[in-house]
Amino acid sequence: MTTRSWKIQRYDHDVHQEVDDEVASEYPLTVVVNDKEFATMVCTPMNLEELVIGFLASEGIIRTYEEIERLTIDEDRGFAYTQTSKDIPIRTDVQKRWLGSCCGKSRAFYFQNDATTAKTIMDSFTITPSECYDLMESFQLEAGMFQRTGGVHQAAIASPEGLLKTYADIGRHNALDKLFGYLLKEKVKRKGKVILFSGRISSEVLLKISKIGLGLLLSKSAPTDLALELAEDLNITAVGFTRGQRMNVYTHHRRVQAPVQGGQRLE
């Protein structure tokens, strides 16, 4: 159950009435890898298979979907059991601060697994401003669960022609991991694709975009400075405040280009 009905007193000035409100469900899921407990995440109980696949890829446990031999989800108990094709030592230090370099520059990663799984994006894909605005409008129209609860984040994969897949979750990282899991499971080609995101562009979000392997992120919210520094280093175009017919292109501006004469995008 992704949402629940909750009786509330809704006020309008000093007048209130009792009504049923819809709230997002919060669900703990423990991921077990090769019979060893790896992590527990709090998520929205939907698309759990994609969530687990994307989470394991984001954490560097797997590189491809084929490395998972078995994935079983016990929704009643809140456990996801995975077996991989090779034995993977589960480190106990993955959440310790670790400083390293990014692309030969003095950029600090918080966690060691980020330094080993982040990728520099090398595509030359471009998109027009109008296509960005249209995609964000479609993305907003897909936000049914947010409109009902106000309590979830949303992530989507798209081409300039339209949205391909959208996921929602109470956790912004979870929404991106679900998207990552879908791309791996369905073997979706990354070339010419865009990620749309409802939340703030933080350094952690930017690193997930890098791990997914896409060079263009459209968000309706603001970025942080560290996220933009990482975007510069990892060759990712970060676009924030995409609302209506306006947006801010913060990094690698060449991917967003107005049409040249004849209406063709530059490649």
From TrEMBL:
<comment type="function">
    <text>Required for formate dehydrogenase (FDH) activity. Acts as a sulfur carrier protein that transfers sulfur from IscS to the molybdenum cofactor prior to its insertion into FDH.</text>
</comment>
<keyword id="KW-0963">Cytoplasm</keyword>
<dbReference type="GO" id="GO:0006777">
    <property type="term" value="P:Mo-molybdopterin cofactor biosynthetic process"/>
</dbReference>
<dbReference type="InterPro" id="IPR016193">
    <property type="entry name" value="Cytidine_deaminase-like"/>
</dbReference>
<dbReference type="GO" id="GO:0005737">
    <property type="term" value="C:cytoplasm"/>
</dbReference>
<dbReference type="GO" id="GO:0016783">
    <property type="term" value="F:sulfurtransferase activity"/>
</dbReference>
<comment type="similarity">
    <text>Belongs to the FdhD family.</text>
</comment>
<dbReference type="Pfam" id="PF02634">
    <property type="entry name" value="FdhD-NarQ"/>
</dbReference>
<dbReference type="InterPro" id="IPR003786">
    <property type="entry name" value="FdhD"/>
</dbReference>
<feature type="binding site">
    <location>
        <begin position="241"/>
        <end position="246"/>
    </location>
    <ligand>
        <name>Mo-bis(molybdopterin guanine dinucleotide)</name>
    </ligand>
</feature>
<keyword id="KW-0501">Molybdenum cofactor biosynthesis</keyword>
<protein>
    <recommendedName>
        <fullName>Sulfur carrier protein FdhD</fullName>
    </recommendedName>
</protein>
<feature type="active site" description="Cysteine persulfide intermediate">
    <location>
        <position position="103"/>
    </location>
</feature>
<dbReference type="GO" id="GO:0097163">
    <property type="term" value="F:sulfur carrier activity"/>
</dbReference>
